[in-house]
């Protein structure tokens, strides 16, 4: 069926003033101002109330953390004490509560205009060995695209690392499960709904050897590589003490310096680090809200992009962000980057680009992240009906400056997944009740 999204109020695309035509899962035509579609259409959607964006792409999250938002034991801490406080809490994860945490995070993201999400799951207490399978099932049921990152930790407190023994696994177990989930779910084809990435957690929770062997495995399966890096000064000190080098030097040593890699945070990169990462095409996921909550610092987005590194956007975990709203994260990116770089250095266009094309590049995808003929029909449609938008003169800029946070319609692969602000076919009240009940176990 050919569907014409007709006469949008505004659209973030070139030559699409009269909208776009969708057929199957793809955009097949951008209709220029004053023109009609080049071929007959089967249906028309009146988009005259809507500002149309490419579907937002979230490149870093921890879905399970929706169960521990605003946790009273960890609200006012920097990263390392925060982690040490919450690791024992997360060790109580079980399949039922985890499934609800994933479902809630995906629904939140979807309602915020997000159509593709990357989740970094690295906590595998006994009984939760099938966490990746649960994430795939939930993403498929809701119709979101996902890069499911099979995370890992094998360096516990007894080995000089940060996490307790209850949440780490042996390297052999980790690598075997990476192979299993890649063989079962990793789809390299254009338009893929599910892809797998391999994601050792951080320098303070994995060994050098695991990092090396994971890189080899990613090469074999043609998967992406992901980890946290240079998030805090504590991490710099840890790497200097344990490995005798800085985080980026460690990355080079273990064979991760390639376009296959994207990193979360990147707050404490030096100028030389930015140059090195850009030269190798390593992507950076900027997490402005989490970095502000944990007072980690400012990502050098401008220097990274100038050096050639793709910059994307992520909400990060819902225990350090307390939200899974990527459109909200776009606004935070604008404010935080203006605070650190200056008002003229960063615009709303930059922040939306990070959340779409930049994030798609981080995930190694050239089939999403923009509105162009031939790309996947992943779209987020917002209205400007709320009081917060009254008086706004630039419809697209208004979404960022005035604080849009909920999409009216969301399309993924040519199918409506949100209509009238609600996910299609899902009982929000029932999900809230079940998830809230599960979360009470983690107090």
From TrEMBL:
The keyword Hydrolase applies. Its EC number is 3.5.4.32. Keywords: Hydrolase. One of its GO terms (molecular function) is 8-oxoguanine deaminase activity. SUPFAM superfamilies: Composite domain of metallo-dependent hydrolases, Metallo-dependent hydrolases. It comes from the Bacteria. Residues 51-416 form the Amidohydrolase-related domain. Belongs to the metallo-dependent hydrolases superfamily. ATZ/TRZ family. PANTHER family: AMIDOHYDROLASE-RELATED DOMAIN-CONTAINING PROTEIN, AMINOHYDROLASE SSNA-RELATED. This is 8-oxoguanine deaminase. It comes from Labrys monachus.
């Amino acid at each position: 069926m050919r569907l014409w999204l007709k006469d949008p109020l505004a659209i973030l695309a070139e030559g699409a003033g009269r909208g776009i035509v969708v057929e199957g899962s793809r955009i097949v035509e951008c209709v220029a101002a004053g023109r009609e579609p080049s071929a007959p259409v089967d249906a028309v959607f009146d988009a005259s109330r809507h500002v149309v964006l490419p579907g937002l792409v979230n490149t870093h999250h921890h879905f399970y953390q929706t169960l521990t938002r605003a946790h009273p034991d960890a609200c006012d801490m920097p990263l390392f004490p925060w982690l040490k406080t919450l690791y024992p809490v997360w060790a109580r994860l079980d399949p039922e509560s985890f499934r609800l945490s994933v479902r809630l995070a995906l629904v939140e993201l979807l309602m915020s205009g997000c159509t593709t999400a990357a989740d970094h799951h690295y906590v595998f207490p006994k009984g939760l060995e099938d966490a990746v399978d649960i994430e795939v099932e939930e993403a498929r049921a809701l119709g979101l695209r996902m890069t499911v990152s099979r995370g890992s930790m094998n360096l516990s407190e007894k080995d000089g690392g940060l996490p307790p023994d209850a949440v780490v696994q042996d390297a052999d177990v980790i690598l075997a499960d990476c192979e299993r989930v890649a063989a079962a779910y990793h789809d390299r084809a254009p338009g893929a709904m599910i892809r797998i990435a391999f994601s050792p957690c951080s320098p303070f929770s994995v060994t050098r050897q695991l990092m090396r062997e994971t890189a080899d495995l990613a090469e074999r399966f043609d998967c992406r590589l992901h980890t946290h890096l240079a998030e805090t000064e504590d991490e710099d000190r840890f790497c200097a003490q344990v490995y005798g080098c800085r985080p980026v030097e460690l990355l080079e040593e273990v064979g991760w310096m390639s376009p296959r890699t994207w990193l979360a945070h990147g707050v404490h990169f030096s100028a030389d680090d930015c140059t090195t990462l850009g030269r190798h095409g390593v992507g950076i996921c900027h997490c402005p809200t989490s970095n502000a909550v944990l007072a980690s610092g400012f990502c050098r987005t401008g220097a990274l992009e100038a050096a050639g590194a793709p910059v994307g956007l992520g909400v990060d975990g819902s225990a350090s962000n307390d939200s899974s709203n990527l459109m909200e994260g776009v606004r935070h990116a604008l404010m935080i980057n203006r605070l650190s770089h200056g008002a003229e250095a960063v615009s709303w266009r930059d922040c939306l680009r990070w959340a779409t094309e930049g994030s798609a590049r981080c995930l190694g995808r050239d089939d999403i992240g923009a509105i162009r003929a031939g790309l996947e029909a992943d779209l987020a449609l917002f209205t400007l009906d709320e009081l917060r938008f009254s008086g706004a003169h630039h419809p697209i800029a208004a979404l960022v400056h005035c604080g849009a946070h909920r999409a009216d319609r969301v399309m993924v692969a040519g199918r409506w997944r949100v209509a009238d602000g609600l996910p299609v076919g899902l009982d929000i009240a029932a999900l809230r009740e079940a998830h809230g009940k599960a979360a009470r176990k983690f107090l």
